[in-house]
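# step 3/5: fold
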Amino acid sequence: MKSEYLLSYENAPVIKTELPGPKSRKILEKQDLLETGSRTYTKQFRMAIKEASGSTIRDVDDNVFIDWFSGICVLNLGHNHPVVKKAMIDQLDRLVHINEIPTETRIEFLETLNSTLPPGLRNHSKTMFTVTGADACEAAISLARHVSRKKTVVVFGGAYHGVAGDIISATANHHYRDLAGIDRGNFYHLPYPYSYRFPLKVREEDISKAVVDQLEYLIKDPYSGPGAIGGVMVEPVQGEGGYIVPPADFLPMLREVTEKYSVPLILDEVQSGVGRTGKIWASEHSHVSPDIMCISKSIGGGIPTSMIVYREEYDRELPGGFHFGTYRGNQLALAAGTAILKYLKETDLLSRVTNKGEYIKKRLNESMELSHRVGEVRGIGFMIGVEMVKDRKSREPDMEFAQMLKTELFKSGLLMHTCGHYSNVLRHMAPLTIEDELIDRGVEIFLEGLRKIS
């Protein structure tokens, strides 16, 4: 039974059966018969879900899990948050879907979103609705190319911008392109300033400069190779690449060079946005305003939606139908998005994310003393990664150990997912509303799991 004073189920985690439980096994068997075998999450989290609340999930066998997963940062306010739920129900009674034609819900969302934007875009931008994060990134590169009249877009190692259409070539892992049979196209990858695994032998304080100097070389030298640069796309904090926080000077230096050569700067805030880092937008930490910003995941409260926000002058020569999509601007998602953004603006949740994020990082740093398999603990807000290695001296990535730990955590009732260049980074991405006791229980489960398999 859920307490009226908590968002989450009480006493989580509660594991009553072997995993998967008998009811879950039957449902998983039916899924295997009916649904594609290319699924991945059901191979990692073997259960069938009945319901969820706050930062907890209950499966059909009544096992209760602590959720440090959030549907991959889709539920920043957690499952069934009352504010978001009410907004959706109220909207459901009025209108679910309409194409582009304005509604009060649509306008309220646009005005609320505008009020949160980085200073360079606030009151000086336009919004274009899309459907998914990949769709938003696709629209962003199309817009940058249209504005610059140049095809090549610079992206970064470790990047994940989606796996659909042309944007699959911006995503760094060639595995996705190989599966889709798509060439790299007009994209050029530079190293992301990932200090733990930076490929160039430079001082740590010079990493940002090394990357940005290389970018400037690509832009200004016609013999540099990739062709005329029409845009730069970057995650202000890398998500799938390993929860990597770049040096503080990276985004400002990147902004300076792209402005110098009038190259559109695109910030992909799909995973890092909507409060995940302790600011509504991660770029706020660096006081950088992009030319184009990609938004998705938690902005819809679980309803698929996305958008790009861009400088208003980019809109002047855009032809009608520049980027199509039947489901753009879904009314339920916009109602939820307004409620979510207002909640972030009007409560102290973001300061809590900052403070609790530092606390979680400090607690997870205890793992460094427990095992030489922990190479680094890093992060900002509720984007925290723990990188697993075979030993701390060599820094050789250990994907197998990371997967073993993830499985052990699941058996103990904690959902925690991996990411990183080698799938060797455990990442904390719990709902921002997670209760203090579930933070502490989750940390203890993590540390005990690490002790057990080390």
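# step 4/5: annotate
The chain has two domains: 22-67+349-453, 83-346.
# step 5/5: archive (pending)
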